[in-house]
Amino acid sequence: AALIIGAILSATEQHADLGALVCDMEPDTITASDPSILENLKLCPVLTGAQRDALNTVLLKGGTVYGDPSSWDLWTLQKLGPLVLALNQTTLRLVAEAVREAFGKSIMATY
């Protein structure tokens, strides 16, 4: 099933119908998929360490709607939603310190 899903995702940008099925995807399938896979990964309650690494690889390639992490602003971090919890130090270091601080403040203000 994972191979079939991977083939579908590699062949098309439109995979919203797959929903949370991506939560069981192998990391290699995530990195080989269209970058829009990130929107489906937001549905996953938990990502494995390897899936988080794959997510960061996709983000660092820069072909996502979020752009290069060095260009991210507060809005971008907010739009990443739950995926922001999966960002590793390599990705986070590319985000401007002021943006990271503003994001932290926005979380504290919300909660």
From TrEMBL:
Q: Where does this one sit in the cell?
A: Membrane
Whether Membrane counts among this entry's keywords is: yes
Q: Which Pfam families match?
A: Mesothelin
* GO biological process annotation, one example: cell-matrix adhesion
Keyword match Glycoprotein = yes
Q: Which UniProt keywords apply?
A: Cell adhesion, Glycoprotein, Membrane, Signal
Q: What family is this protein classified in? A: Belongs to the mesothelin family.
Q: What is this protein called?
A: Mesothelin-like
Q: Which organism is it from?
A: Nipponia nippon
